[in-house]
Design brief:
The protein has 2 domains: 7-177, 3-Layer(aba) Sandwich (Peroxisomal Thiolase, Chain A, domain 1); 184-326, 3-Layer(aba) Sandwich (Peroxisomal Thiolase, Chain A, domain 1). Helices cover 32% and strands 26% of the residues. The protein has 10 helices and 13 strands. The protein has helices spanning 26-29, 37-44, 58-73, 97-105, 120-134, 157-160, 219-240, 258-268, 279-282, 289-299, and strands at residues 7-18, 22-25, 48-51, 82-86, 110-114, 139-146, 166-177, 184-192, 200-202, 215-217, 250-253, 308-315, 319-326. The longest helix is centred in the last third of the chain and has 22 residues, at 219-240. It is globular and about 60 Å long. 52% of the residues are buried. It binds oxa(dethia)-CoA (UT7). Oxa(dethia)-CoA binds at residues 35, 39-40, 43-44, 118, 157-158, 161-162, 219-220, 222-223, 226, 256-257, 260, 284, 314-315.
Length: 327
Amino acid sequence: MTARMKTMRAQFAGVGSYLPENLVTNDELAKTVDTSDAWIRERTGIRQRHLAAPHETCAFMATRAAEAALAQSGIAAADIGAIILATATPDQAFPATATRVQAALGAGGFAYDLSAACAGFVYALGMADSLIRSGAIRNAIVIGAEVYSRILDWNDRGTCVLFGDGAGAVVLRGVESDDAASPGVLSTHLHSDGSLGDILYVNGAVGRRDLPGHLVMNGREVFRHAVARMSEAIDEALAANNLARTDVDWMIPHQANRRIIDGIGKKLGLGENQVVITVDQHANTSAASIPLALAVAMADGRIKPGNLLLLVALGGGLTWASALVRL
Ligand code: UT7
């Protein structure tokens, strides 16, 4: 008789989100940008985006999302071992925005920001899962929070119409389990290719008065890599867990463009009722897009306990990543 090894698993214990109050439709945007609702909808699927007011900082939105996730989890802030905040738009170069969130929540443990652009949330989930599996910490908060409106060039219609602001958070609870089918993160798969850094980047940095930094993107090149790399990362995640495409209940992809999402869904043979889409409502919120989409689909009851979730994202770096999670 072989003894079964108990291992730590990171379970999704609570999900929360925050969206800025200012909702801007394509038609409203077309009053100040040389664009149209028809172009934006046809090329991207985006109908509207939320844009942050001055008080809706990265820390403010991240804190709101984390508070909601903590409340749902029933875990006390003091019992949090780590806060990992994925963002490309921190409020300051330092301290990390995550430490501002830690203070606002009265949380324990340690906190840091993680920079992996639109793949940031899945990267952060991978880091938190590793910390929990290793026994270093028990519970964590993983957050994606972005204020891209502050790094957009509002004179560049090729990029400024694509993005929105917001935050989403997941509280992870470490649970001992010897059952591979029990709830928790099954695996995460992280990749980057720095040689592609110049197809999507910010041409400056916080604190550089000469160059505060605007987002620059070669959309066609990013599009090409997005479908190919995310499809590979999905196959990798399924193979690592001996699962088939048909085992997936819901894919929650990064929300950059409806055409990219449809392309991946088609490759996977997933029906429309198996893919969560929020790009129409939120536009591209970078690291926040996956937890925001998760929050929407959990709140409306589409995603249920026991479901197998496939998360996948690609962003500047290039960075890309996938994760399989049993709810
Ligand atoms: O989140 C990180 C990952 N990011 C992504 O995954 C984004 C990937 N890329 C994309 O989603 C698409 O490439 C875009 C939506 C960014 C652009 O779509 P596209 O079909 O590649 O359009 P394009 O950039 O080639 O532009 C086509 C035309 C151009 O006009 P001409 O040169 O054909 O006359 C643009 O000037 O559309 C024009 N255009 C616009 N027209 C109205 C570009 N932006 C706009 C606009 N409104 N906002």
